Amino acid sequence: MESIRVVVADDQEIVRTGLTMILNAEPDIQVVGEAPDGRRAVELARRLRPDVCLFDIRMPGMDGIEATRRLAGPAVTDPLAVVVITTFDLDEHVYAALRAGARGFLLKDAGTALLSQAVHAAARGDALIAPSITTRLLKAFAEAGPSGPPAQPIDALTDREEEVLAAVARGRTNAEIAAELHISLSTVKTHVTSLMAKLVVRNRVEIAMWAYETGRTSGRP
Fold it and tell me: Where in the numbering of this chain does the Response regulatory domain appear (predicted)?
């Protein structure tokens, strides 16, 4: 199996070193570049085209939000997978990073297992949001109100899609959704793909944000 290639960016050398050591200890993950700020991270990522970028939010010069936008934003035709990490569990910058195209986020104290899971999820096109902050963070910013009215789905969601939507918004994995709704894993994946198409979003993070903005976290519109 080919290793998942990762670029790590954090302005604190000790943090970069720690993250690199943790990831390199995984048999199928390899850190191929490190950067002390967002500008260098963007340059490295564009040159190396890693499978996953792991960026701190608060960095000098160019922060992790702008770096994410340049590599994974709506205007990027071939976006990279970006996971952002932060010290704060309720921070407007996290939400901004998700809007900029981040595929997931973690707290710096999330632990080695969750860090590895987030990198693996991002590499396979999925997304992982730290379970401890999913609901509180997204709900808080949804209550603050989006910049404009949420886009309506291209086609109406089915009842089952509403249930899957709510489960995704609660941070459930595909396997957990399958068990919760008593359906197969492949069926869950089909529903998630359909949701992304109908909502015109690119990943599970954006599905979750749409669910909170439209008050659909209970599984009903």
Answer: 5-123
